[in-house]
Amino acid sequence: MLEFEAPVAELQKKISELQKFSAASGIDVSDEIRALQEKMEITRKNVYANLTPWQKVQISRHPARPYTLDYIKRLCPDFMELSGDRRFSDDKAIIGGPATFNGRKIMVIGTQKGRDMKENVFRNFGWPQPEGYRKALRLMRLANQAQIPVVTFVDTPGAYPGVGSEERHIAEAIAVNLREMFNLTVPVISIIIGEGGSGGAIGLGVGNRILIMENAYYSVITPEGCAAILWKDRKFAPQSADALKLTAAKLQELGIADGIVPEPLGGAHTDHDEAARLLGEVLQKNLDELCALSGEELKDKRYNKFRAFGQFEERTGADCE
Q1: Rounded distance between C-alpha atoms, residue 20 and residue 174, angstroms
Q2: Residue 140, CB half-sphere, CA atoms under 13 Å: how many?
Q3: Quick check: 321 pLDDT over 60?
């Protein structure tokens, strides 16, 4: 339970206690339970309609939130994972392979976290290493040869900053991915499903469409990292989250995100099946639109989209008054 969810959790606890009391005593308290359920729904709506950027960051990291494989299992049941970068090893923090989505062949690639300590160690806590990005590039080139769309799921705090990662040239691996993704002649859709942190996210994020889940975030740096730099203290993460403009609504307003994928009330972690259904609807719509374009059109639109990022106006002091 997150701190701001306490009012909802308290009502859930009262409902559970009444249900147990009714079962044990045989006394009908259905009217009271129904009233509390209605109050809980109203409270839940009020809580989630007024989330701060930092609270959305917390939801994006919820341990019960669906990860890449959770969405793939529900949307692409015939997914076949391919492993290895053909150079060094297989990075378990990035998974990928061919699949079928609503009858259409696609190449699906994504960052993957773990549910418990053992799996998190196996997945390197969702921090990809150079071989992960090289594996992803191998699969994207394969998709380009087969002329099938590429769909990437992004959920990582960033690329792994360890010594081994640096020795194997993590920055170069990400840079090559950026360059090569611009040259793909197939539709590329990147979906931020949780955390979209730093170069670790953009290494899979050069898409014709960038979609973001309602309670996900996408930023050049994590709020804690920003706070450590600007305020020399991670406790200022809520302030930095607000300053970074990293929420889905802000990113769409700034032209970074092309669309927002709605989530079930209370966040994707409350209902994985519904979250996958909502994501599938948005993905289908965008695939239909992009698959109608030629390869050159896809390349040009992808290039122009990213060239338009970061536009600004200069004003003199008199103009600002």
Answers
A1: 54
A2: 32
A3: no
Residues 89-100: tens digit of each pLDDT? 999 999 999 999
256: tokens are 């970074």
The whole-angstrom separation of Cα 231 and Cα 169 is: 30
| Identity of residue 107 | M
Region 271-299 average pLDDT: 97
Q: What CA–CA distances, in Å, run from 251 to 3, 257, 287?
A: 25, 5, 21
Side-chain half-sphere of 177: how many Cα atoms within 13 Å?
31
Q: How far is it, in rounded angstroms, from Cα 140 to Cα 206?
A: 12
Does the model's pTM come out above 0.85? yes
From residue 72, alpha-carbon distances to 20, 53, 62, 234, 269 in Å are 37, 27, 19, 34, 16
Backbone angles phi, psi at 166, to 5 degrees: -70, -40
What is the rounded distance in angstroms from the CA atom of residue 196 to the CA atom of residue 219? 6
For the chain, the residue count is: 321
Identity at 259, one-letter amino acid code: G
**Three-state secondary structure readout of the chain:** CCHHHHHHHHHHHHHHHHHHHHHHHCCCCHHHHHHHHHHHHHHHHHHHHCCCHHHHHHHHCCCCCCCHHHHHHHHCCCCCCCCCCCCCCCCCCEEEEEEEECCEEEEEEEECCCCCHHHHHHCHHHCCCHHHHHHHHHHHHHHHHHCCCEEEEEEECCCCCCHHHHHCCHHHHHHHHHHHHCCCCCCEEEEEEEEEEHHHHHCCCCCCEEEEECCCEEECCCHHHHHHHHCCCHHHHHHHHHHCCCEHHHHHHCCCCCEEECCCCCCHHHCHHHHHHHHHHHHHHHHHHHCCCCHHHHHHHHHHHHHCCCCCCCCCHHHHC
What count of other Cβ atoms lies within 10 Å of the Cβ of residue 37?
A: 13
Question: Smallest Cα–Cα separation from 305: which of 189, 199, 134?
Answer: 189
Whole-angstrom distance, CA of residue 31 vs CA of residue 33: 5
Structure token digits, residue 71: 């969405």
